[in-house]
Here is the input.
Amino acid sequence: MGATINTQIITFDTTAKMEVLSFFDKTVDSDGYLIEAEDPTQKVITPDGEEIPLEKFAGIRKGSEIYLKNDLPSLIELLDIISS
Amino acid sequence: MSGWFDQLKEIVNINFNLHIFSQTHIHIGSDNSHPAVYNQERDILVLNPSALPPELNSRLKPILQEFVNSGDGLLVEKRSSDIIRDISSEESSNREFLSFFKGKISREDFAALRAAMYLNKCFRDGSSKEKILTMKQGIVERYGARGNKISNLYSAGIFENTIKPLYEEMAKYAGFDEDDFLRYYDQIIEQEAFTVFASSYMTVDVLRDAIERKIKTNKRYGAKYVTVRGIGRNIIEMITEVISEFEMEGFYPRPPSITIKDNIIEATLWFS
Here is the structure.
């Protein structure tokens, strides 16, 4: 608890989300959910199998690209991962 | 630091005459007018992809992909990154409290407790109602109604002033069984909405007033009882005194149930 963050971090503005997603060949569908740019039928999901609306998209981490949500429990989990 | 950094360093050096270092923080912005800006004082490089020439923008893509996929790093929204650091800082300040509960309650409850702690910190700091609501929603979505109760109990000081002392009191006695604590603990969580927690800060009148208000609330939501809990000799005496007063006023349709064990009192009053 209150551990040192051991992971290198690159941050992005909230307004730069679409740019960031484009670097990973992702985009957003008409309902505002992250999808594969090459296959719009394929939604991007978290490791828990949840779809990600753009406003909840927090970032990407290693391991064949794990997509992150910005709700409080997810951010606490992320803290544990990057501190370990 | 891997090849991605060297490639990035080369791009900004050659194209923008900027010099970055291994510890330079990289931030991706959305300013259309400046492709790359380096703040020497804060050692931050801001890249604005929308302002980059197409050939440089396309070179950024494999660099960021390598950054993420190499395992070196995390690409995260600034706002979320700030929250993570804030959570870490808050937990540092409450290390002893969190260490106490880690391993004593379930992993899920402990995770909910950590979330409740941060939520409470934001509330104290004056965060917007919208932000508080969103965080609370996140807790409920992940941990359900139990998470909501844990959050309420934490912000009411029950974890610090009742549950922790409860464990400490019970642990004093020979034959202490953690499962007994967990039974009490589960009851506290489950009955959160219907319970008054008596503390040493209360007078008899304050406690009585709290019980009466809880009765009003509980009736409104269809509950037929209120539970009163407390720890310690003085609080046990105070609770029994208040209950006696209610009894003399002919308050109950049936006698209250009172359990006192190991300096811990639990009283249930039925009012209909």
About this structure: Chain A has a mean pLDDT of 90. Chain A has one domain: 3-83. The beta strands of chain A are 8-12, 26-28, 34-36, 57-61, 66-69.
